Inverse folding.
């Protein structure tokens, strides 16, 4: 394998790792707000790394540009979605989970 | 209490440039009705703006109510006649109002509850602030039993809020961007060039009136385009850090999180800079933009260190650098400006749900 292929493999592995972190975060974190943290961040970097791996693996100009455009749109849509979810949660009056409220239960 | 044929008017009110003239118009209408010997009931109703906290809209409502009282007294001369009943109300607080129909329904509900028969619309009425909703709200109201009239007010040439005058630079800018995008996902063959030009032409015709507030300046756009990659790298670095921190927190056996809502007033103006900052906040360490009202950000933060980063204002400074240049980056941090509030009290304690407790589940 060439160094570039190795790089693609490493990036893809990183993408898988952060995808895994997202899944774990969704299960472990306590409420809708904190779970949105996991979904909006780890997921974005997971996709970024995977797409970077794709861009390198394909090694053709146009496909790389397309992958970069996909990245751009992910950067716009992923936080927007997280924002929409948490905003409607806030509108519904859902109180964020805190360390203190954990002690009360 | 009032005569059966009394003039009962519903006047939706909100921040608008012609609110003063609308009140004057309502007073003229009321005076005419009084000459008929009819009693008059005036209902000034403001709709709670989506995204504002109930406290905020309460304050706005209070301010507006005082103004309307003062204007009514002024226009009726000395004091409001005994035959005139004035009511002010605020509606729609606990509802998620989204479409014009939602707004109209809230008004209709109020009208039927109070047995009102006529709506006077402020011609610049716009409950949401940015998207013009007057026409759809009005047509929805007209579909009901209510009489709807627009207050006749004098004002400067009426400008549609969404669609603005298109100009050649705007057309060219939209055309260039959409053509470039089309070609970047296609290829440079003749077929793509022709179809791309047609597509970009159609896009520019339809989107130019809504896309810009002011004429695009080539030099300004160029400067922002040069600064944008710098920002992108800064943001990517921050995102990478965010994810390592998140991964540590999420995978740590004891889940060391300390979530809190904080408030941040950004020193940014305009839709694009605000949107950029809001999205960047969401993408970086442990912070998540929940709501934005004007330039106040409600941010949910996951850990104490993420709050420190936020109040230090690194991201805000970077966004200012992109849009306002290097001098824009040299400003005090939100903490120094006193624009940062730790621990925001929940907006509506009554509606608060029970916090979930399955913290360690699946750990």
């Amino acid at each position: 394998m060439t160094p570039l292929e190795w790089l693609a493999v490493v990036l893809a592995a990183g993408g898988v790792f952060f995808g895994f972190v997202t899944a774990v975060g969704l299960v472990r974190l306590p409420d809708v707000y904190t779970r949105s943290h996991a979904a909006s961040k780890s997921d974005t970097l997971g996709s970024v790394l995977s797409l970077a791996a794709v861009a390198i693996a394909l090694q053709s100009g146009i496909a790389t540009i397309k992958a970069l455009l996909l990245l751009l749109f992910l950067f716009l849509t992923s936080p927007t979605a997280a924002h929409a979810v948490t905003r409607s949660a806030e509108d519904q009056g859902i109180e964020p989970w805190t360390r203190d409220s954990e002690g009360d239960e | 209490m009032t005569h059966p044929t009394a003039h009962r008017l519903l006047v939706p009110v909100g921040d608008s440039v012609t609110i003063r003239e609308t009140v004057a118009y309502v007073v003229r209408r009321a005076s005419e009705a009084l000459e008929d010997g009819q009693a008059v009931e005036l209902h000034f109703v403001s709709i709670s703006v989506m995204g504002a906290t109930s406290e905020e809209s309460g304050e706005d409502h209070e301010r507006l109510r005082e103004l309307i009282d003062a204007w009514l007294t002024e226009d009726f001369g000395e004091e409001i006649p005994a035959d005139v009943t004035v009511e002010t109300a605020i509606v729609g607080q606990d509802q998620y109002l989204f479409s014009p129909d939602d707004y109209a329904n809230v008004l209709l509900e109020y009208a039927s509850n109070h047995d009102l028969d006529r709506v006077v619309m402020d011609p610049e009425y716009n409950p949401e602030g940015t998207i013009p909703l007057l026409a759809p709200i009005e047509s929805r109201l007209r579909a009901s039993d209510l009489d709807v009239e627009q207050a006749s007010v004098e004002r400067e040439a009426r400008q549609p809020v969404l669609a603005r005058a298109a100009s050649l630079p705007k057309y060219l800018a939209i055309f260039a961007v959409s053509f470039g995008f089309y070609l970047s996902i296609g290829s440079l063959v003749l077929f793509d060039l022709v179809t791309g030009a047609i597509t970009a032409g159609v896009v520019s015709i339809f989107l130019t009136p809504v896309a810009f507030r002011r004429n695009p300046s080539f030099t300004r756009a160029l400067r922002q385009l040069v600064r944008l990659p710098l920002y992108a790298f800064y943001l990517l670095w921050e995102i990478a850090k965010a994810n390592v921190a998140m991964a540590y927190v999420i995978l740590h056996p004891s889940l060391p999180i300390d979530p809190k809502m904080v408030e941040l007033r950004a020193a940014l103006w305009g839709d694009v800079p605000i949107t950029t900052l809001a999205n960047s906040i969401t993408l970086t360490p442990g912070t998540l933009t929940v709501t934005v009202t004007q330039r106040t950000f409600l941010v949910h933060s996951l850990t104490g260190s993420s709050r420190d980063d936020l109040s230090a204002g690194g991201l805000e400074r970077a966004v200012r650098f992109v849009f306002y240049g290097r001098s824009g980056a040299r400003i005090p941090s939100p903490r120094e400006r006193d624009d940062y509030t730790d621990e925001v009290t929940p907006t509506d304690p009554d509606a608060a749900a029970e916090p979930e407790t399955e913290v360690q589940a699946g750990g």
Remarks:
- Chain B touches chain A through 51 residues (CB under 8 Å).
- Chain B has three domains: 7-150, 168-211, 218-341.
